[in-house]
């Protein structure tokens, strides 16, 4: 049954993306930029509904009160394609620093450019990267939120942390708070797999780390608070969803937490 539901969900998920992108394109490009967020945010909400009804997966968000009213960096754990889009409805006017090649994709790239995402040539050095930082500062000066995944790529649940120093540089240069986010969608929407598993999980938005710390001290604190919350949620999620097939990384981390008396 899980295989069948997963196949049907994946088919409907991508069909929903294509249909909404085509049908709502005139509305999206006629609306002012910020109001046009209605279109992708509506798509996200429809995906949450589809995942609940077709797969049986639900979630809740804790800590929305921790989101600052000033510009900030939103720094979630990254485990799944789900967390690349799922929290957009709860953010005011977010933007990403993303590969410039994504802006070349027909239609999708036009959506990205309208929202003034910041494209980057990963092979670029020096002046080009300075331009990326200048653009990022310009966007944040208008009150926007920058979404950055501190580990840079999707990591399986329970995997040892591999935080990149780039977020510490951004924290230093932008002088804004960083909001850590812990969650385990990768237990329900595993990376590089088509299976989707039913159950319930939490997204935990943590108190912001205020601007002004030494970058090294900031990075150490970011890792500490995020991983502590991530461990707590891993234990909670597995207890609440005993049917879940756990990846080896999650199994190993649970053994470590049990040995430490934390599970």
Automatic annotation (TrEMBL):
Listed Basic and acidic residues bias regions: 253-263
Organism of provenance: Ensifer adhaerens (Sinorhizobium morelense)
Keyword Transcription found: no
PANTHER family from the UniProt entry: 1-ACYL-SN-GLYCEROL-3-PHOSPHATE ACYLTRANSFERASE
Protein name per UniProt: 1-acyl-sn-glycerol-3-phosphate acyltransferase
SUPFAM superfamilies in UniProt: Glycerol-3-phosphate (1)-acyltransferase
CDD domains hit by this protein: LPLAT_AGPAT-like
Record-level Gene Ontology MF annotations: acyltransferase activity
Keywords tagged on the record: Acyltransferase, Membrane, Transferase, Transmembrane, Transmembrane helix
Residue ranges constituting the Phospholipid/glycerol acyltransferase domain according to the UniProt record: 72-186
């Amino acid at each position: 049954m899980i295989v069948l539901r997963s196949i049907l969900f994946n088919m409907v998920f991508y069909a929903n993306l294509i249909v909404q992108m085509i049908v709502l394109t005139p509305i999206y490009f006629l609306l002012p930029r910020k109001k046009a967020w209605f279109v992708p945010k509506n798509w996200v909400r429809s995906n949450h509904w589809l995942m609940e009804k077709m797969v049986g997966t639900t979630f809740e968000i804790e800590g929305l009160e921790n989101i600052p009213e000033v510009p900030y960096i939103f720094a979630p754990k990254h485990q799944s394609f789900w967390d690349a889009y799922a929290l957009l409805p709860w953010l005011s006017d977010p933007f990403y620093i993303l590969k410039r090649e994504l802006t070349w994709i027909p239609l999708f790239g036009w959506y990205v450019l309208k929202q003034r995402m910041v494209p980057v040539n990963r092979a670029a050095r020096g002046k080009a990267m300075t331009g990326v930082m200048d653009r990022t500062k310009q966007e944040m000066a208008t009150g926007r939120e920058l979404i950055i995944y501190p580990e840079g790529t999707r990591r399986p649940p329970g995997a040892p942390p591999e935080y990149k120093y780039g977020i510490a540089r951004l924290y230093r240069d932008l002088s804004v708070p960083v909001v850590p986010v812990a969650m385990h969608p990768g237990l329900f929407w595993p990376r590089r797999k088509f299976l989707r598993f039913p159950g319930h999980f939490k997204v935990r938005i943590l108190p912001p780390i205020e601007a002004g710390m030494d970058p090294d001290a900031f990075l150490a604190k970011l890792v500490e608070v995020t991983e502590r919350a991530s461990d707590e949620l891993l234990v909670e999620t597995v207890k609440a969803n005993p049917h879940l097939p756990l990846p080896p990384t999650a199994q190993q981390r649970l053994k470590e937490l049990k040995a430490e008396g934390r599970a």
